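Moderator note: this is an archived Q&A kept for reference. The question asked for a predicted structure of one protein chain; the sequence and the answer are reproduced below.
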Amino acid sequence: MQDLRDAVIATLVEEQNNGANLSVMVADSTSTSKIAPFEKAFPDRVINVGIAEQNMVGMAAGVALSGRTVFTANAAPFLFARSNEQVKNDICYTETNVKMLGLNAGFAYGPLGATHHCTNDIAIARTFGNLQIFAPADAVQASAIARYAIAHNGPVYIRMDSDKVPVLHDDDYRFEPGKPEILQQGEGTVVFCLGTLAHEALAAKDSRITIVSLPSLWPLDEAAVVALIARHQQVITMEEHVLSGGLSSIIGEILLRHGLRQRFTPLGIPAYEFTHSSSRAALRRQFRIDAEGLKSTLNQAAAA
């Protein structure tokens, strides 16, 4: 069980020691980002702007123009809600070399309610040009994506979970942007998962289904996704995100573009709804994006 944030920060320390020219900017989010190891090693490379996310994004773009690779690390709901214009113009439109860590995405802030739930970040991020979008499923993958982001010249958004989750990948794992990742091979039904919901799909313990993680939402190898869908009769998506603009929209658009007629069941938060205060486990249960929800969906499809 490892925290994705610990893995990313350890990677930033390692890469800086190996010669990368990094800076990290936080918005009163030192504890949320778990930045302490990096700040201890490189105190002059961490800038805390306070609760001022718009300033953080604009300043990050400015620091990046000086030649550094800049990571912003703050709560995902406030990154996109408060800094939308700055992300669009200062980072994406100008292709500035800033990497944004969206922390505590989805229902991570469970009891704090709709103001703190981040369930539309992918929908927003997909509308910006020049932005690569990733959602790691475990700590090893998060580390590999961070390493790729440092090497890539241009804007990156990484959707981060805050829970400790089991490790799915070996230490020699190499991240390939765009590649869908088959975690379990089955037949009949293919389940596409966003981020750490891959663990819920695996916890359903149904050997008949194919489970696919999509850590790379853009770029995405559409031909590989189409090939996976074509081998199955039913498609299910699982996301801790609204069902408009996120993973279900990505897969639904692919089905439409390629004239694929598989039965399609998206699992997530219905559009035009606000979530409420509760634990993450309860919210996942409510929206059927946990292991039991997937089992119920599979049973209903089998009975239809």
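Archived answer notes: The radius of gyration is 19 Å.
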